[in-house]
Amino acid sequence: MTGSQNLQIMRGVSQSLAGRTALASLLPFSLAELGGGQDVWETLWRGFFPRIFHDNLNPTEALAFYTATYLERDVRELVKVKDLSRFSQFLRLCAGRTGQLLNAANLAADCGIAGKTAMEWVSILEASYIIRRLSPWFSNVSKRLSKTPKMYFLDTGLVCYLLGMDSPGQLANHPLRGAIFETFVMTEFWKHYANGGVTDRLFHYRDGAQREIDLLDECSPRRLLVEIKSGQTPSAEWGETLKRISAAIPGASRLCVVYGGRLSQVRSGVEYVPWSRIGGELFG
To answer: Helix 84-95 to helix 104-111 angle, to the nearest 10 degrees?
Structure first.
């Protein structure tokens, strides 16, 4: 079990282990592993790192120590980033862009670094399990690799800490609460497949008219389309958007909206799944 030392250990292996290893990624707790949550904003603000729950830690303090250790040990020692203050700024800028299309040039300009450096640092964050990129869906597979991905943090608590939120109430009223809620739902899908030892096939979708679907799951027995909304009152318009776009995606036969409310329901063939039941209703 390597933890964040994975980068250093794999670099130090002197021979190929192809065909002789098994790899398992243990991401932060899923909502199901925690037994669910009562309040959406408190759950997302606290995050899902195991030690916070095992030792009953204050999330702000624990994540401050985590971030400092990550910068001082992993980043400095493993990948030789010299300017830690600039990298720390870059990390916070990325937190403010979770759930958005990855624009390395924009990140580089805001941080005062070269575009090439920004992409290198994005790769560092991904290799050390801080973020993950979500590719766009195209019927042409080569386009999936060449078009712009979205970027998500793998823990919502870390995002909240990096953005300076000291309480669930701050998150509930924050302009990025929708993006952070979307980040939560995306990570639940990644955790589900990682915990099952399955290589996921998850994408986002945007067409030429700028119509979007947050998540397309090709691992589902029926190609699953998911719209993610932080609002607590379901809207029929959310489902209509899914139905309009699904006509352009071959095989899309299950349509779901994951939202911030509490009631499960089906409207005109669209499932409305509360955030707290995502494990049982989407993965059960």
So the answer is: 130
3-state helix, strand, coil in the chain (%, to 5): 45, 15, 40
- Residues 165, 111 share a domain: yes
Segments forming the whole domain that contains residue 67? 34-177
As for how many domains the chain has, the answer is: 2
Average pLDDT for residues 71-77, to the nearest whole number? 79
Report how far residue 257's alpha carbon sits from residue 112's, in angstroms, rounded to the nearest whole number: 39
pLDDT tens-digit series, residues 18-61: 666 677 788 999 999 999 989 999 999 999 999 999 999 999 99
Q: Is the pTM of this model over 0.85?
A: yes
Indicate the burial class of 178 (C-beta count within 10 angstroms; 0-12, 13-18, 19 or more).
middle
Q: What pLDDT is stored for residue 3 in this prediction?
A: 56
Residue 154 CA to residue 200 CA, distance in Å, equals 15
pLDDT of residue 80: 72
